[in-house]
Write a structure and sequence with these properties.
Elements (H helix, E strand, L loop, with lengths): L1 H19 L10 H4 L11 H13 L6 H8 L3 H13 L6 E3 L4 E3 L14 H13 L7 H15 L6 H10 L13 H13 L1 E7 L8 E13 L2 E8 L5 E5 L3 E10 L8 H4 L11 E9 H8 L8 E4 L4 E9 L2 H8 L5 E5 L1 H19 L14
Antiparallel strand pairs: 1-2, 3-4, 3-7, 4-5, 5-6, 8-10, 8-11, 9-10
Helix pairs in contact: 3-5, 4-5, 6-8, 12-13
């Protein structure tokens, strides 16, 4: 058995010498480098697996077929296929050192070939850059920036000009501007959510002037328009609601843990809403005219919406959504171009708000003060 093993090692050495000459000893590996950098059994696609293997061997980490199988949770044939792709598709020379029992790269300075990118992929890279705006200042910001920078660096040099042109010629604007959000609050909430720990914080709702202390179980972080919200269950009442991160203060993480949601989740409750606040769905009919009719005809406000043509330059919007303040504000934003037909309670609520708004402009206003400038 021992003789057979020695013969196998000699055959491996001869095969390696036939490819690139004598076997080059792998570089010394520190214990820190030898530690795996991926979770055992993680599911990744073949391309990502080869890239990860390249980065590991380039860093000098010690890997053989057995340890790679255990680390990636794959079969021996998958490991061999990844090594073959690294050699053939990525033009890398991969050798195996019998004494060190590890694969290694004899030339670790050899870069990977540039991947061919289409103009559509360049546009997606631009979109990814703009999508980072809500994460500015958070712990996710640096990681995402590094990923995008790495992707941009891998582009063919001939396409760098195209990327610059796309960045210069495309602008992303959001109505309402950027919401204020303390990055430390965001990071603390995200960490507590991941650890499933209850949190305490001072909160000021939009219709109150003073803060009050709340204790919740953080479930989901949700971005709505330009603002971040936390969907959480109150530890006191057990009810779920949305909390704006911009209105949180003095946040503390507790040691109390909680279990994952079972059955319908807080995210499911938002399926019937046009925004971040939920509610029971009701049949809503709104008549739109003029510019409002044309603009709404080009948009999808909710998955349940139906558009029916009425008289000239008018349409009827029918949806099954939650009737709440967000819906009222959306309707009032169209002023005289939108008319609620049903339900009755929404008609009354919008009419009441419209009357109060109109009354503000009917009040007598003081004449503008005229500044007299005496002639010199």
């Amino acid at each position: 058995m021992e003789k057979s093993s020695k013969k196998s090692r000699r055959r491996t050495l001869r095969r390696n010498r036939a490819v690139v000459g004598p076997v080059i000893p792998p570089p010394a590996v520190s214990p820190a480098q030898a530690l795996p950098t991926v979770r055992k059994g993680r599911s990744i696609d073949g391309y990502s697996r080869v890239l990860w293997l390249y980065e590991e061997l380039k860093a000098g980490a010690v890997w053989n077929t057995t340890t790679l199988m255990a680390e990636m949770g794959v079969s021996e044939s998958t490991v061999r296929r990844a090594l073959a792709n690294l050699r053939v598709l990525f033009k890398q020379t991969v050798l195996f050192d019998v004494e060190a029992n590890t694969f290694y790269l004899p030339d670790r300075s050899k870069p990977l070939p540039h991947a061919s990118s289409t103009r559509g992929e360049l546009l997606m890279l631009c979109l990814a850059r703009e999508a980072l705006a809500p994460y500015a200042g958070t712990s996710f910001d640096r990681t995402l920036q590094d990923l995008i920078a790495r992707q941009a660096a891998s582009l063919d040099k001939r396409l760098e000009g195209s990327l610059a042109d796309l960045t210069a010629n495309i602008s992303f604007r959001t109505l309402g501007g950027k919401a204020r959000c303390d990055p430390t609050i965001f990071d603390a909430v995200a960490a507590a959510q991941a650890a499933r720990c209850e949190i305490l914080f001072d909160y000021r709702p939009q219709n109150r002037k003073k803060y009050f202390r709340v204790r919740v179980r953080p479930r989901y972080l949700v971005q709505q328009d330009t603002s971040w919200y936390l969907l959480a269950h109150s530890c006191k009442t057990g009810k779920g609601r949305a909390y704006a991160l911009s209105r949180m203060a003095a946040l503390e993480r507790t040691a109390e843990r909680f279990e994952r949601e079972t059955g319908p989740t807080l995210l499911d409750a938002l399926k019937h809403s046009i925004g971040i606040f939920g509610g029971e769905p009701e049949r809503v009919r709104i008549r739109l005219r003029g510019a409002a009719a044309r603009i709404v005809d080009e948009q999808l406000l909710h998955d349940s919406q139906e558009l029916r043509e009425c008289e000239k330059d008018e349409i009827e919007l029918v949806m099954h959504v939650a009737v709440n303040e967000e819906l009222e504000r959306w309707i009032l934003g169209w002023a005289e171009l939108a008319e609620v037909l049903e339900p009755a309670k929404l008609v009354e609520a919008v009419a009441d708000r419209a009357e109060k708004q109109a009354a503000q402009y009917r009040r007598p206003r003081p004449e503008a003060a005229v500044e007299m400038v005496s002639a010199v």
